[in-house]
Amino acid sequence: MEPVPYANIVVEGKNVGATTNFDGYFQVNKVPVGLQTITVSFLGFESKTIETRIYRNKPTTVKVYLSESTQMLNTVDLNIERAEKKVKVNTAVVTLNPKSIETFSAGGDPDLMKAIAVLPGVVTTGDQGASCIFVAVLQYKTSCCWME
């Protein structure tokens, strides 16, 4: 006979029980002294109910043998799909027109680089010969480079 791992052990009428380990052993604590009824059950096996006497300060050893059940259970079909997580992405659109670009001119011609440099998520680098604009898009960086 093979051990039945994870079988349920219940002391009838009491609020105590246990589960067998992988090797079929179990230990139930706080069982009242006297004659007790114990039920052992596991899916696919016939439940077995036995009576045993519990003594004070003396461990009680019980061997229980379960028979395989001949009762056929209905099959259960599981159809599992993973639901896709819907993520809403907030995007910002900034429109620059010639009038708004003029507000960034410092007494001279309208300066597109200065207008773009103050927008959220934009970093500009460069000197008088060339300027580069780096735009942060979500978790990636997209870079655009304009030569003056």
Write the layout of secondary structure elements.
Elements (H helix, E strand, L loop, with lengths): L7 E4 L5 E3 L14 E8 L6 E7 L43 H5 L9 H6 L4 E5 L3 E8 L2 E8 L1
Antiparallel strand pairs: 1-2, 1-3, 3-4, 5-6, 6-7
Write up what this structure looks like.
- This protein is mainly β and 148 residues long.
- It folds into two domains: 1-69, Immunoglobulin-like; 98-147, no CATH class.
- The protein has two helices and seven strands, in the order ββββααβββ.
- The protein has helices at 98-102, 112-117, and strands spanning 8-11, 17-19, 34-41, 48-54, 122-126, 130-137, 140-147.
- It has a four-stranded antiparallel sheet with strand order 2-1-3-4, with no helix packed on it.
- The radius of gyration is 38 Å and the shape is rod-shaped.
- The termini are far apart.
- Residues 138-148 have low confidence and may be disordered.
**CATH topology assignment of the largest domain:** Immunoglobulin-like
What would CATH call the class of the largest domain?
Answer: Mainly Beta
Q: Runs with pLDDT <50, length 5+? A: 138-148
Number of domains: 2
Label the overall shape: rod-shaped
Helix content: under 10%
CATH homologous superfamily (4th level) name of the largest domain? Carboxypeptidase-like, regulatory domain
What is the gyration radius calculated from CA atoms?
38 Å
The first-to-last residue Cα distance is 87 Å
Q: Going across the major beta sheet, what is the strand order?
A: 2-1-3-4
